[in-house]
Amino acid sequence: MNPSLLRSPWPWFSALALALLGVFVVYPLLYIFTASFFGDGGSGWVQLMHDGRSLAAIGNTLVLACVVTLCSTLIGVPLAYVSARFRFRGKLLITLLPLITLVIPEVVTAQTWLMILGNNGLITRFLKGHGIFLPSFYGWFGLITSMSFIYYTYVYIGTVAAIGKFDAQLEEAAQSLGTAPVRSRFHVMLPVIRPAILASALLVFTMVVGNFAISTILGHNVPLLSVAIYQAAVAEGASNLTMQSTLASTSVLIVMGLLFVNRRIIARGRYEIVQGRGAKPQPLKGGQGVLVSAAAGVVVAISLLPLVTIAVGAFTVSRGPVMRWGEWTLDNMARVFITAPGPLVNSILFAGIATLISVAFSTLVSYLVVKKPNLVTPLIDYVAAIPLALSGTVLGVGLLASFNGGFLSLTGTSTIIVLAYVIRRMPFGMRNGQAILHNIPNSIEEASISLGSPPFRTFLRVVLPMMLPAVASAAILTWTTTVSELSASLLVYSGGRETLPIQIFRLIDSGLMAYASAYGLVLVAVILLPVVIATTVFKVDLFGSK
């Protein structure tokens, strides 16, 4: 063996990283795939073909994902276009406020939509008093409405960036040849930004497929795949994994198929253009400006309704499930901080530990993949991306099935909750770490080593400080998504280890909306506070815009 390999720590770190990923990512996934073929009642795929409700759940999920993706695209693309190309009254707020929807947990969003438009919702009761009866918000209407006004933000972000970078001279050249402005946008600009739109739309599709919080709270009589996986896991436990493993495998195959399609579409539709100047936003005045501003403002206002409602509901008097709007109290908040603070403490503790582990591991693995490639680093890179194809319910089923006993029994411990958090959010750190490492010259590290600094010390003292902006960004993004995680933790948690999202989910199920609002408002504060501190005090660029 080459003596330099024995002295270098990186091959050993690579082997350790691959081993950890194999145990905690590959093993659970293989376990549920295997269990779907070999169960007590035979092949789960054969059982699935004769299970009408499960087939309906799969079909409904695909239909819901298609409709929500279409609605999100129809909302997000026009909003992105007017934001990128025009100046109008209130533009700054309209372009920034949609980003807030990204940090509002979906369990909170579902809860507050019910408080507004549910059977006993504020607007529902008001309209009933005037003889106007709205359709039930449970079922398709509620699912499509709530998800569309959450997920359009992802289409908006991806599209506005693509339009902003589009070279306006191409559009001007087409118009100089006699092409009408509208037609030039469809035939010149649209093909260039289409990959960004499709990538964002397919991201929305995969998120709808894996959505659990909104699906289970608003779905009711509409069978959906993520809810079916959860119900199978809760009903059957670890004694019969066949059907839950089959449904989980179906979810994985759908998402993996979509990621494959996404890559093929982007590869075929990619246009390479020379970087030029973007179009200067044109001012909109008079009636046209008012119309555009009002339309964009309505979209943003609707998407922010959950945040306003939860803030009001947290301080509203209630008698059981009945909200007494207009009467105020601090009792709901006292419950969060004094009477029952356990979920708040658990969320901060579990998410904090998971964020530290996830960022440390993803930073080291990113360094190995980009700067110290060897025979196993491509495999590490691929395996580390697998959680992108796993919904929370699938991950929960895999962890419960794999670590319920045997060589590593984690069921019923806090460790399995932290583990679920780490696995789900690890790709965030990988993405940020690899992006910045490609911009760090190898010569800097080589110069440090040539001056006598050992490789690992060079990584800690030279490379890591240069990675700090990306590491900080990854830590904040990991924290915000981990604190709000519900689907995986709901399956793996045990008594006394409830987190804020789990507590909110349980209170909604009991109809105690005021208490749920208080916990929800604290959850949003726990999410936003580090973001505000990071962006204002430490100037962390979360979205890589600098």
Please supply descriptive tags for the structure shown above.
546 residues, mainly alpha, MetI-like fold, two-stranded parallel ribbon, two-stranded antiparallel ribbon
SSE diagram, text form:
Layout: H1 3-7, H2 10-37, H3 44-49, H4 52-85, E1 86-87, H5 91-96, H6 106-117, H7 122-128, H8 140-165, H9 168-176, H10 181-210, H11 213-218, H12 225-236, H13 242-268, E2 282-283, H14 286-313, E3 316-319, E4 322-328, H15 331-339, H16 342-371, H17 377-384, H18 392-402, H19 414-437, H20 442-450, H21 455-483, H22 487-492, H23 500-509, H24 513-536
Parallel strand pairs: 1-2
Antiparallel strand pairs: 3-4
Helix pairs in contact: 2-13, 2-16, 2-17, 2-18, 4-8, 4-10, 4-12, 6-14, 6-24, 8-10, 9-10, 10-13, 12-13, 13-18, 14-24, 15-24, 16-17, 16-19, 16-21, 16-23, 18-19, 19-21, 20-21, 21-24, 23-24
What does this protein structure show overall?
- The strands form two sheets. A two-stranded parallel sheet has the order 1-2. Strands 3-4 form a two-stranded antiparallel sheet.
- The chain is 73% helix and 3% strand.
- It has 24 helices and four strands.
- By secondary structure, the protein is mainly alpha-helical.
- The relative contact order is 0.13.
